[in-house]
């Protein structure tokens, strides 16, 4: 029987792979290129996490992630009329994958025996790094480096996870609340156009004052 963390991992892989394949299709990549972008999007963050934790990358042990990415590619091909043209589709799958992978990163780091602040960092890397690789591959400025609330949503979810864990909240409830929190932070930030302030050169600010 699949445990909840593995289920989150599989669902996150499928969601992130679709977000990668969808953007690759919009850029008119061929099928192989789209698969590569989807796969890197799905496993990129988890790979960095496992290497930082001193573990073998998960997808090198379990072939299901390769298969799930192929299913995501097939899903996008079959439903490309609805999936590819819609920006809301990319946003939806990206937000869901972000939340799912944040929980997976938190749980795996916790299981490896690291302190809470490392868990939060590993959760954020698992959630956000795959999207960064995706954007680089399709020649876009990564969301994590823009004003968008992206990796910050993962950090917020990690803090909520830690608070709930300290308060003795049951594990499964903590996981679902953390998942919902990351997705909600991301959706509300976009809905109400909440962004982090951009860092501008000092001389640019002086020109505006003049």
Q: Would you mind describing this structure in some detail?
A:
- With 210 residues, the chain is mainly α.
- The chain contains nine helices and no strands.
- The chain has helices at residues 4-26, 31-52, 64-78, 80-83, 87-111, 116-137, 151-166, 171-191, 202-209.
- α2 (31-52) runs antiparallel to α3 (64-78) and α2 runs antiparallel to α6 (116-137).
- The longest helix is centred in the middle third of the chain and has 25 residues, at 87-111.
- It is globular, with a radius of gyration of 18 Å.
- The model has no long low-confidence stretch (mean pLDDT 91).
Distance between the termini: 67 Å
Which shape, going by the Cα principal axes?
globular
> Uncertain segments of ≥5 residues (pLDDT<50)?
none
How much helical structure, as a percent, in the residues?
over 70%
Can you give the mean pLDDT?
91
Task: Indicate the radius of gyration in whole angstroms.
Answer: 18 Å
* Fraction of residues in β-strands: under 5%
Give the structural class.
mainly alpha
Largest sheet: none
Number of strands: 0
> Helix-strand pattern, N to C?
HHHHHHHHH
SS element count, helices: 9
